[in-house]
Amino acid sequence: MPTLLTQSLAQMHPKLRTNGMGIGNTHRRISLGFLQPSKRNPLVRKYKPRRRHGSDQPSFRSLGDDFGSTVAREDTGQVIDEELGEPESPDGGELSRTVSLPSRVSEGADVHSEVDWILEEHERRYSTAHPSDEELGPEDDNGSSNDQEQDEGLEYGDFMRRVRQQLKQDMERRQPRPSYVSVSTRGSVPNVYESVDRKEDYEREVVTFKSEAKILASYSIPLVLTFLLEQLFPLVCSLTVGHLGKNELAAVSLASMTTNITLAVFEGISTSLDTLCPQAYGAGNYRGVGIHLQRCIAFSMVVYVPFAIFWYFSEYFLGLVVKEKELVALTAKFLRIAILGAPAYITFENLKRFLQAQGIFDAGIYVLLICAPLNILLSYTLVWNSRIGLGYIGAPIAMVINFWLMLVLLVLYIVYVDGKKCWGGFNKKAFTHWKALSELAIPGIIMLEAEDLSYEILTLFSSYFGTSYLAAQSAVSTTVTLMYMIPFAVGISSSTRISNFVGARRPDCAKIACEVGLSCSFFVGLSNCLILVTCRQLVAKVYSKDAEVVRLITELLPLVGIVEIFDSLNAIAGSCLRGQGMQAIGGIINLVFYYLLAIPMGILLGWTFNMKLFGLWIGIGTGMFLIGTTEAYLVLFPNWKKILETAAMRKEAEDAEESDSDDEYPSSDSDDELPSETTILLHR
């Protein structure tokens, strides 16, 4: 019977043959993968790749040697066959379930011709291995069996490596066009197709210290500019209001202190995306990147509600710790208006990390290049303009308007320019798994809040030394916060690269990224120190015209410049810990050194030894030195096995979540549900 069926198929015209069921049906096929691999059936067994023209690189025709499910390339019409290597079963295995997805080319003769060529080649091999009874002799039979046994042995991993190399070379020769995401009936994406769209192949990237330094520089420079432009908002606010008087400057400083403490909480929550999004992106889970973003925003908005209530009634709460009632009243007015702008700022920070995980670091520059000049114009107009100027209260109004403008422009960038490929639409999964998110968010909050709160505690205690000391401390803190953005940007860049490599399971490359980041911290710290020391007179005159305030700032900045060297190491080492997913350790270190050593030491030197602001900064500088060196050691000598295991467990949880969410999508069993131009066959 097999011989009769073979002879009948051989007499058919090639155009009437298919690789499954149906005549000339390229829309819905049943793969030959349902036939069991057999030593005596060369049609479905594996073959060793043959060299063509003396080269080890197989062409797309050689991919037909291994038969399984088919992926049709839309730009060339070539067909890639993938042997799934499913375990043998008595009934021959299950039929592959396939769906057709839209493409930019129609069902043409190119696809037919390549499939027909492969079928003809397999039929020739089948006829050679199974000749007719008259032609088959005992010697031929034995020889054929031996040849078949020698030809077996092509491993699945080697075959897929060659497939990906061929795809990569094809994509390098032409500009990739947007394609539809290929999904099965449960939404899974095959790696052979998904790898085409990825900007970087972290699993195969060759990384050296020099190459990583170049990439880190390319990431950091736009990010530094983004953070510096973003920090212009509180700086402009202080400058425009500071010239109204000492009380106004002190009130803005106190309001900035309160907002910094509050927003640091949401900065800490968003740092969980420094771990989650890059790891998901490095592993190729694009949809998961968008779900992490939505989950983090939803979680942040719920947490924001009690802080908004605190801001509204801040006059009562601040009155418990600040003696001057006029100062408290002005601060409360600022905070009540700032309530409207905080949600936009929180969402903006999360969207920035969403883009950074995809390697998009310049979006913030474009947005802030528009918003920063507008902020200066609005602040001056609403504070100083003779007709529409509102005085002190105009500064927070200008800040709120600019926060919302930043958010709108960044969303428009994602929609119309770049970054939306990881947005899978709104998903109800954003309101689940908050416990897993909080495991990274809470240590991130502690890491950032511990440092930010320490600065604000210094500002609060400086108010007991007098208004001039408070104004000087406020000016120095604002300057230090601005300078801190440089190492913080470098740290975010390092964190992104480390997380990408951890997601791709490349600890060797992640280690190099850690070493490059920490090496840059010393260069950045020395640069900040040099700027603060050499420009101390200019900085002091920018903030105030009061002689006493200018003198205090000028005397304090050299000491602050030395502290900035340690602060740079602290910032980058902490970011590297977040990239490794070790926020919990960083949070513990910050809490211990800041609140058990640095702040008590600063208060002791400032009050007991009457060193005032100098004592406060000596204490905080000592804590930064110890934190930076400890975190740098942990970054350079981590337990990579544990880090990879944790990342793998997180990925398994994401895959399980994706599997659950795929049930929400209807099964595409009907041919009418999806257009059928190029057929993409996926094995289940």
From TrEMBL:
Coiled coil: none
Subcellular location: Membrane
Residues that span the membrane, as ranges: 296-314, 334-351, 363-384, 390-416, 588-608, 614-636
Gene Ontology MF term list: antiporter activity; xenobiotic transmembrane transporter activity
GO-annotated cellular components: membrane
Chain segments carrying region Disordered: 44-107, 126-156, 651-684
Acidic residues: bias regions: 80-91, 134-155, 654-675
Domain of life: Eukaryota
Topology versus the membrane: Multi-pass membrane protein
Alphabetical list of CDD domains matching this protein: MATE_eukaryotic (cd13132)
GO biological process: xenobiotic detoxification by transmembrane export across the plasma membrane
Entry keyword set: Membrane, Transmembrane, Transmembrane helix
Ranges of biased composition (kind: Basic residues): 44-53
Main location: membrane
Keyword Electron transport appears in the UniProt entry: no
Family: Belongs to the multi antimicrobial extrusion (MATE) (TC 2.A.66.1) family.
Protein name: LALA0S05e03378g1_1
Species whose genome carries this gene: Lachancea lanzarotensis
